[in-house]
Task: structure prediction
Amino acid sequence: MCRPLEAAGTPPPWVAPVLERIAAEPSARLTADSLRELGVTPERARRWFRENFGMTFSVWARQRRLGDAVDRLRRGSTLDDVAVDSGFESHSGFREAVGRDLGKTPGRLQRDGSRAVRFIRWESPVGEVSAAASDAGVCGFGFLDRRNGDDGWAERELGFPAILTPGENSHLRTLREQLDEYFAGQRREFSVPLDPQGTPFQLRVWNELQRIPYGQTCSYAALANRLGQPQGMRAVARANAVNRIVILIPCHRVIGADGSLTGYGGGLWRKRLLLELERNGRLPGEVPPS
Result:
């Protein structure tokens, strides 16, 4: 089972120097000798990254570099500069790596406006979750058992041209911190930037969902009325169902007119737990703080 970081949010002590080196020097190419200098054998690194990311360390590091390269291309850097700064010895080598690992040529990445998106997965109090974030904010957050165990995200799910690579960015770090506080009953609102993509109507629905106060619920009919479309309850329900950023865009706070929980993409058991957490400040079965 993949766990890029441990449940507490900290990698094993022995791998921390490797991750810190990559974060400090994103374009650096760590060789076997470089790993040994950090006190890590190549075999151990290969095994850990394969077990936790589903890929070897070298592939993980290359995808990280390519993700950074995509960001620079989108911001207007020249192909030559990006290739050299990303640690590739030749223009052709960079093109080949981009095509092989990302499935697009550098030229197409520039034309379609592809953005680099980082994704991570971890164990939460309500099961394994996966999150994705662009440089603008969190664009995906969901439950892994509702995504057939797939820890990545696809362009069709995010709603915009994207190159997805494993690893954190500042938005994902903030998201994890704020979710930890939420599950501990210490946070009622989220301040991490969001980057949802949808139709104008879907965005209106998702914005309205964020106006439902913590600890309260709203029916589909009431939500449609608040949007000025009292006959649009089914359209509201569909927009609710395709919400890609659960909890932060709190679709779990929408219930039936008779008070029933109705459907929830994360499973009704999770919806019940989240609503109870927000009512009581703690998850069911947790001992209240003394």
Notes: The longest strand covers residues 115-124. Residues 15-111 form a domain with the Arc Repressor Mutant, subunit A fold (CATH 1.10.10.60). Confidence is low (pLDDT under 50) at residues 1-9. The chain has three domains: 15-111, 116-184, 200-280.
